[in-house]
Structure formats: structure tokens, C-alpha cells
Design a protein that fits this description.
560 residues; mainly alpha; Serine Threonine Protein Phosphatase 5, Tetratricopeptide repeat; two-stranded antiparallel ribbon; 40% helix; 5% strand
Length: 560
């Protein structure tokens, strides 16, 4: 579904080119040529084309990438910016919580996502006048367009909070205020999509009823509507026809994309005739490891690695705080793994550690494999990496980018549903059910493949076990579930948003920043301000051009 050929179409339609409010007028010729089945489906393809957050008009989509590696990952305790301090220094302000309303990444997050909104609205407008489509065909298109529109609004809301609501009936977007969080509008779109869409398509990557229900449940959880979320997640879990992959790492390999666990994936295509393979996760194009010639952004933190330590009985330590004493020792020459304590095996499927095999690239060589260790520690991200044996065939071979590859981004997996359902059970249901669900995840980890040396021996002292008894209290359950979420979904761009949703982002991030300030000098003195830093600013440019009667209709977020 994702095809950048349709960027050309969208430009011809006059969709956003620099600011989403600066929309060129659309004449009658536009609607006459596209208000038919073929035109509507072209517009729908254009709406899908933006789903990776890269619309071809603003940078390379690093700020707005669907993986949320900047705002969901680097801003959390999971990931460092990486590279060196001067490269893409606008991210430094995001990572250190000193961004302002003119930050380049703040503005470049906003614009491509509103471009996606406009593309969806164009679909819905053209659909109204298409006379060669049946009602059933129109319903399918409307469901997909509204699913995509709600997705774009959710991405905007997580980062900017209250944003203006522009739909297919809006005639003057420059006078629309940002006076509420758009939960009702997103709910309505996802509900319609859940009722309109089929359970499966032959085309991979199209929105389905199960993806819409999962997304709607996610929206409910952000609003603490746990019973509503629980009902939907239980439906997906019990009736969706999805199943966990046998081994954890199979969710992060090119050869197992669109697998039995996948509910909704962003489809990537590589070496398809376009320079830099823009359909292959261009928004993460600078996130590949430096040892292959990439830029070395988005690297795992010491905090994340320490989270995978387990007790002698294979259970998470569930530490309330993170300290410098928790940092695992590592070999800088790749000759050995110095930490001998037990660790969760998901660690080495997530993080490239010195002395541990890095997929089929050989033993991780330590600091020499990181562009600037003083700025980013000794680790590499593993989940978005391709195999050495796949290089060229399934990774980019054109232009200057060496990292874009065919490893889809799994937006929703059954594992997400299980962990979120466990949280809902802990909040409004049964602690026994919550324990059982988390143990489904832990048992999969227990039975997964482990990383091994060439002679077949495990690369570390791996151990993971299910919880032996029911969670004793709600507080214990929620702590365990939140910890499991980090272990299962680390480096997938959701950590910061989950910390905000759980209401613990302030203490977690301030503890992390204080410890990291003693390890990496560039972190020293950084502080997270509760009540401000949960979201980023409204871009100043948008405030300046959103004017009615000489006054801006957009309200800036507190503290900016």
C-alpha cells in the first residue's frame, strides 16, 4: 500500500508542502478528475503512503518516523540520541527536555502528520461524489481513511497534546483552535473503522477491524477507560485469530514479517527504483550502526541493559530506582562478557552488547562499533537491524543511506494486546488473570531461542521464569506489568509515552537523568519538569499563521 509514487499525486493535489495550514485551493477540475473509483483509490494509496511518517517534503522524516525513535525512544530511559553531540543537535533538546517552540524536530514532527490528515480528508471528500462505487465499496474506503486519520491524530496528540481538528468538512483550517484533546474524534474514527473493515485483506498493510479495535483500546487506555479497553483487547486476544510466534526474536526479522503474531505492520520495500529506498523506513535511515557506515543514532542506554538483570529464580528485579551500581560491565575489545549474573534472554535479542554475537555480523566489537562512546555508551540497537547475509538484497543499495531495509515496523502485535490486557485486568479485573497473561509473555521468552556463540554455547547466563504465584496486590501487579512492557517492547518507540500514560514519567526520568549525568557528561544537569515535559510545544510557525481577527487561535502548551 505504501508507494511514494503517490507523493507526486499529492503534490498535484496541493496538499501540505511546508505548513499544514498553507493549503493551496483545490478547483473543480480536481474533484471532477478524482471523484470516481479509480481516483478515490489513488487518493487512499496516497493516504497510506504517509503512514511511515515520511512524506517526502520535510527532511527525511526522522522527526515524524512512525517508529517514534526520537520522541518515544530517545526522550525516554531506553535510548541515547547516539552519533556525536553536534550531529542533529535539535534532538539534544528533545532528549534533554530543553526544547522550545522553534525546535526543528518539533516542527518537522507536526507537518508530515498533518499532511497525512489532509490526505485522508481528501479521500473522504472525493468519496462523497464518486458515483461509480457501491455503498459497500465506499464503506471499505471510508473505514481505511478514518483509521489512518485517527492514527495521524494520535501521533500528533502524543507529542503535542491539544491540536486543532481538521476534517473533510473544514473550510478554513487557519481559524480552528486547539481547545481540547481529540479523544472523541479519534474514538469515532476507530469505531467506524472497526465496524467497516474486514478481519483480513489479501493486501498486506491495509487496516483491518482487529487493528482498529486494538487502536481504539489503546486510545481508551490513554484515557484510563480500562473496562472499555479490556473488552476490546479480550475480543482481539480471543477471537482475532492471532498467535504468538514461538521465539521472541522472530518479531524482529525480515524473514518473518507479517507473521501470525502481527496485527498491523508498516510495510517496507527496499531497492524499488527510488534513491535511498524511501519506502524502507527512511525515517530511521540514520539509526543504523556506525560499523556498517551508518550514522549511529538511537542506541540503548545503560539503564535499559540493567533492566534485564534477573534474580536467581529468573524473575525481574523490579527495582524502583536505577543507580550507577547497576551498570553491567562490558568488554571493550569484544573478547568476553564480563557480567556473569543471570539476565533475561530478551536482552541480547534487543541490544548489541560487546562480546556477544550481533546477529550474523560476528562478535560485537565494543566501543569501536559505536560512533562516539562518550556520547552514547557501548551498545547498539538490534531490533531494527538486518542480517549481514541480507545486506544489499534486503537493504538499501542506492544513494547515500546504507541502513534502510525491508524489516517492517510492527505497530501492533499480539504481545502488545496481551500486556495491555494484563494491565486492564490489574486495573479493573482479576489479578489472577493479569498474572496468567504476563506469564504467557514470560513463558514465550523462556522457550525462545537464545543468542549463542559459534560453538553453540549460550552467550550469557540466560534465565527467565514465569511468576510462580498470583500477583499479591494491584500495586505489585502494575509494577510487574510495566516492567514487562519495558522488557518486551524496548527500543520500539513506545517507552516515553507509556511512562506518561502511567503517570510515573517524572520520578523515572529524573532518577535516570541524575544517574546518567554521572556517567555521560552531556547528561549532567538535565531535569524533567512535571506538568510541562510530558508533551512538547506547538510549533511557533503554526501559532504565527493560525490567526483570526489579528490573534492566534492556537494556544501554546504550558511552560513553552
Amino acid at each position: 500500500m505504501k508507494n511514494k509514487l503517490f507523493i507526486i499525486l499529492t503534490v498535484l493535489l496541493g496538499a501540505c508542502t511546508g505548513d499544514f495550514l498553507e493549503i493551496k485551493p483545490k478547483g473543480q477540475t480536481f474533484y471532477e478528475s478524482l471523484t470516481n473509483k479509480q481516483g478515490v483509490n489513488l487518493l487512499l494509496t496516497g493516504a497510506y503512503a504517509d503512514i511511515d511518517g515520511v512524506n517526502g517534503t520535510v527532511g527525511d522524516g526522522w522527526a515524524s518516523a512512525v517508529t517514534n525513535w526520537v520522541f518515544g525512544g530517545v526522550s525516554s530511559d531506553d535510548a541515547y540520541k547516539g552519533s556525536n553531540s553536534g550531529d542533529q543537535n535539535a534532538i539534544n533538546a528533545v532528549e534533554g527536555f530543553f526544547s522550545d517552540a522553534q525546535n526543528l524536530y518539533v516542527s518537522q514532527h507536526w507537518t508530515p502528520l498533518y499532511d497525512g490528515v489532509v490526505r485522508c480528508n481528501d479521500v473522504l471528500k472525493a468519496l462523497k461524489s464518486a458515483t461509480d462505487m457501491t455503498d459497500a465499496e465506499k464503506k471499505l474506503v471510508e473505514g481505511q481513511a478514518r483509521f489512518l486519520r485517527a492514527h495521524y491524530y494520535f501521533e500528533l496528540t502524543k507529542v503535542h497534546g491539544k491540536v486543532p481538528y481538521i476534517d473533510e468538512n473544514t473550510t478554513n483550517p487557519t481559524v480552528v483552535p486547539n481547545d481540547h484533546v481529540l479523544w472523541p474524534e479519534m474514538e469515532a474514527d476507530f469505531k467506524m473503522a472497526a465496524n467497516a473493515l474486514p478481519s483480513r485483506w489479501s493486501d498486506k498493510g491495509r487496516a483491518t477491524q482487529w487493528a482498529a479495535k486494538t487502536y481504539l483500546a489503546r486510545i481508551y487506555m490513554f484515557q484510563k477507560k480500562f473496562q472499555l479497553a479490556k473488552d476490546l483487547l479480550q475480543d482481539v486476544y480471543s477471537n482475532g485469530g492471532f498467535s504468538l510466534m514461538p521465539s521472541y526474536e522472530q518479531n524482529y526479522m525480515i524473514k518473518t514479517i507479517n507473521n501470525a503474531e502481527s496485527i498491523f505492520e508498516i510495510q517496507y520495500a527496499v531497492n524499488d527504483g527510488f534513491p535511498n529506498s524511501p519506502n524502507a523506513g527512511l525515517g530511521e535511515s540514520i539509526c543504523g550502526p556506525s560499523f556498517i557506515g551508518s550514522s549511529g543514532f538511537y542506541l540503548p542506554t545503560h539503564s535499559l541493559v540493567s533492566a534485564y538483570r534477573v534474580s536467581a529464580d529468573g524473575l525481574p528485579l523490579l527495582d524502583d530506582t536505577y543507580s550507577a551500581d547497576d551498570i553491567l560491565p562490558f568488554a571493550t575489545n569484544g573478547s568476553s562478557v564480563l557480567y556473569k549474573g543471570p539476565v533475561d534472554p530478551r536482552l541480547d535479542h534487543t541490544v548489541g552488547r560487546p562480546g556477544v554475537p550481533f546477529l550474523d555480523w560476528g562478535i560485537h566489537q565494543g566501543l569501536s562499533w559505536v560512533r562516539d562512546p562518550s556520547n552514547a555508551g557501548p551498545y547498539n540497537n538490534k531490533k531494527n537491524m538486518f542480517l549481514k547475509s541480507e545486506q544489499g538484497a534486503l537493504s538499501n543499495t542506492t544513494g547515500v543511506r546504507v541502513f534502510p531495509n525491508a524489516n517492517n515496523y510492527r505497530l501492533f502485535k499480539l504481545s502488545n494486546v496481551i500486556v495491555w490486557l494484563a494491565e486492564c485486568e490489574a486495573e479493573v479485573g482479576s489479578l489472577q488473570n493479569a498474572t496468567t497473561l504476563i506469564n504467557v509473555i514470560r513463558n514465550r521468552a523462556k522457550n525462545s531461542n537464545v543468542v549463542r556463540f559459534a560453538d553453540g554455547t549460550p552467550a550469557a547466563n540466560y534465565k527467565v521464569e514465569p511468576y510462580p504465584t498470583t500477583f499479591p496486590t494491584k500495586d505489585y501487579a502494575l509494577n510487574a506489568i510495566r516492567y514487562e512492557s519495558r522488557l518486551e517492547f524496548a527500543m520500539e518507540g513506545i517507552r516515553f509515552f507509556e511512562l506518561v500514560r502511567w503517570g510515573i514519567v517524572g520520578p523515572v526520568m529524573n532518577n535516570y537523568l541524575a544517574v546518567e549525568g554521572t556517567i555521560l557528561p552531556y547528561n549532567k544537569g538535565k531535569v524533567f519538569n512535571v506538568g510541562q515535559h510530558e508533551i512538547w510545544p506547538i510549533p511557533q510557525r503554526q501559532i504565527d499563521i493560525s490567526v483570526k481577527d489579528g490573534k492566534s487561535v492556537l494556544t501554546q502548551n504550558p511552560g513553552y
